[in-house]
Amino acid sequence: MRTATDVVDELRRHADQREHAKTTRRMVGVPLSVVGVRMGTVFAVAKEHRALPLPEVAALLERDEYESRMVGVSVLDFRARAPRLDDDGRQALYDVWMDHLDRMVAWDLVDRSAPRVVGLHLRSRSRDPLFTLAASPDVMHRRAAVVASFALIRERDLDDPLAICGLLAGDRDPLVQSPIGTALREVGRVDAARRDAFLATHAAVISAAARRVARGSGEASVAGVDAFPTFPPVTRHTITFDDVMARRDD
């Protein structure tokens, strides 16, 4: 049986100084160490180990190397894509992800896994977990609430994604505004009138960048591509828990 240690050893065999320098530059401010492995190789390692037992996936998520955690979330994502995955299987993936929520400290760890692992699991369940994430003081939790909702929008289920975007429309952190823009763009592909009404209602608080993305049409749709979109790291700001809860209660 393969283990998390086998994965880490394989990643280290692929380590490259140039990749280490490149990844380190874009990981400024992220509390993780870097092995220095090309991202395509990281995904290939994850695909090769997609049958890794879930306790071993959890062990990868508990490590402090960026690439180890990326393999962990990618394994969860690959498993969540299985068309015949039953409810118990989805629950197990979701539980591992949520148990390691606070290990999702980089934007791409969230984007790689939240739509399928979290969003697909909640398609026929209460969306309360997404609203709890949206009310979190942690920016990555708030981002996860929006990004996970991409899977709902893909199913033409718009009410909760729009409610989450409304809750966070005034969030000053670009790490939240960026996926809000994408969520609204995808809502517009399903129901342009609802997107436009949302933008009109929240015009005073939503960022100009999010509005531009929301009205864009040239980018790939989450409904028509295999991979959900991801976004580059940007400067962070903060929003308080009380601010978010006050908007939720309005």
Automatic annotation (TrEMBL):
Lineage top rank: taxon: Bacteria
InterPro entries noted in UniProt: ARM-type_fold (IPR016024), DNA_alkylation (IPR014825)
| SUPFAM superfamilies assigned to the protein according to its UniProt record, in alphabetical order | ARM repeat (SSF48371)
Q: What is this protein called?
A: DNA alkylation repair enzyme
